[in-house]
Amino acid sequence: MTIAFLFPGQGSQSVGMMDVFSEVRVVKDTFEEASVILQQDMWQLAHAGSEDQLALTTNTQPLMLISDVAMYRAWIKLGGKLPSILAGHSLGEYAALVASGALNFTDAVPLVRQRSELMQNAVPSGVGAMAAVLGLSDENITLACQNATAEGGVAEPANYNAPGQVVIAGNKETVEKAVEEAKKLGAKRAMLLAMSTPSHCSLIKPAADLFASVLDTVSIGSTEIPVVHNENVQESSTAQDIKERLYQQLFKPVRWVETIRHIVKKDIRIGCECGPGKVITGLNKRIDKEFQMISLASPEAMELAMNEFSGG
User: Fold this and answer.
1) In terms of domains, do 112 and 212 share one?
2) Whether residue 188 sits in one domain with residue 208
């Protein structure tokens, strides 16, 4: 039996998100390791941070990386089956690269913090926005964005999360126009999200250019387990290619639907969501119902999955 491990990113955080793992030593050790690196108590943030604190990009990105990796380490420590392929949604790609052996956790933690700071500073507060559009084809999403940008501004598809569920990003006023255009084209729902940083669009490219210099200072090796990248839906074979994918990922859309379908084409029929929450599991209900998703969001869920994989 071959399985895929899928790591969530921003949007899966919640107050007390790792409390169910508070008695798992390897999880606490991972948080302590990261806290020393960042000189910030990341367990306290995960345990008692407010919604506003957790929503701050510079907190969310490292916190999700730490949580994803801690849960993966817990799975391995408990004797869980190694995955055959890995992928991560946006920020989750960094956890996938750590799990693959290509990126050391001690390098990934400060790298993700720098990524988050560059993204947060790329666009002044109130200038950027993101919006979710439901019930519209990808082609009509593109048309809505084109109509909205006819007089200037940026509005672009940012996350192809599921069929009929796409997030757009860009200038706030232009994204608001795109929302109205999407409704005219028949969207069931279209609404702004509580995110001021317009991720995965061209407004972030200046930050990506700065981030490229940061990536040059980080040691990245080859993957021991293949990682499917968001940006090109392919697996990289060299360190330089991985760095290029991470650079491009910042201002290119997350092609999640294609990522899942790419994995399914490899005759893998089970995916484990390794991170807090069940966002990825929920998205898959609209992508491929025959691709079985299992959330590993608690130690009990991990034990049940292990029993299932072992036939017990």
Assistant:
1) yes
2) no
